[in-house]
Amino acid sequence: MVKDQPKRITASNAPSSYTGGITIKSRRELEAMARAGAIVGATLTLLKRSVEPGITTGELNRIAEKNIRSMGAVPAFLGYQGFPGTICASVNEEIVHGIPGKRVLKEGDIIKMDVGATIDGFIGDAAISVAVGEVDPSAQRLMDDTEASLYAGIAAAQPGNRIGDIGAAVEGYAMERGYGLVRGYGGHGIGRHLHEDPHVSNYGEPGKGHLLRVGMCICIEPMLNLGADATKVLDDDWTVVTADGALSAHFEHTLAITEDGPKILTVHD
User: Fold this and answer.
1) Parallel/antiparallel/unpaired status of strands 231-233 and 180-181
2) pTM of the model as a whole
3) What is the pLDDT of residue 12?
4) In Å, how far are 48, 130, 150, 267 from 110, measured between CA atoms?
5) d(Cα 176, Cα 164) in Å, to the nearest integer?
6) What is the pLDDT of residue 3?
7) Are 198 and 210 in contact (CB under 8 A)?
8) Tell me: the pLDDT tens digits for 146-195?
9) Phi-psi label, residue 255: left if phi above 0, alpha if psi -120 to 50, beta otherwise
């Protein structure tokens, strides 16, 4: 799930159970993070296989919740600051935070599914964009390039680098290909809480921002648009859409910063 705007969690309006600051995980805590990440990855694999014309976003939500609970975890998003779903299900021009419900997916749509799961007190969080049947080549390129920009950011998440190196890598990849880069939302630290410090922007300056240290866990999640980068929030006070109605794609992984470099915890097919 995307790092929040002021409506949601920030350093200044965080719940009392979150005291702020960057957390460094112990070996046991990283093992718990890996368990949570594996559940998220397995759920996304199942969701990807379930997407087809005619299915509703609500059905996908039920599939995800059943799978998460069957693996001994609980949905991390359900009830989070009032969010009513287990997954965020965002279709076409919807960027993030779409509420699952009665919407029927049709041939040519693209759907973004964001999943979080909690087990043993720790959380995994990841997102994918999936084609519904056959899609326009430009939509497929958008999804492919958004995923590639995620991996550009991950490659920059080396111990000793800084948060700005991640943002610069994502931004550079997106700008070279002419996409609108969503700047008002981004990634975040993660651990016992869904959104922890630091904020992980999808743009930035190399060498700037928080130092990446071994034991940190972060989420990187670029959102690229076929049109401009401007966004707006719908009347449900959750769903973020492109202001110009253009298609958007979103990918996310939870990763740990290790001595050997970034380790993806939310691997999926």
Assistant:
1) unpaired
2) 0.94
3) 28
4) 11, 6, 18, 21
5) 18
6) 54
7) yes
8) 999 999 999 999 999 999 999 999 999 999 999 999 999 999 999 999 99
9) beta
- In angstroms, what CA-CA distances link 44 with 7, 21, 63, 112? 27, 29, 10, 11
Do the Cβ atoms of 101 and 57 come closer than 8 Å? yes
Contacts of 81 (CB under 8 A, 6+ apart): 8, 9
207: left (phi over 0), alpha (psi -120 to 50) or beta: left
| Those residues with Cβ within 8 angstroms of residue 204's Cβ, 6 or more apart along the chain or in another chain | 163, 164, 165, 166, 167, 168, 171
Reading phi first (left if > 0) and then psi (alpha if -120 to 50, else beta), residue 7 is in alpha
> E-assigned strands of the chain?
74-75, 87-91, 94-96, 110-119, 122-131, 180-181, 187-189, 196-200, 217-220, 223-225, 231-233, 240-242, 248-250, 253-258, 261-264
Structure tokens at 21: 């600051």
Distance CA 74, CA 36 (A): 10
The band of 2, judged by pLDDT with boundaries at 50, 70 and 90, is confident
Other beta carbons less than 10 A from residue 249's beta carbon: 28
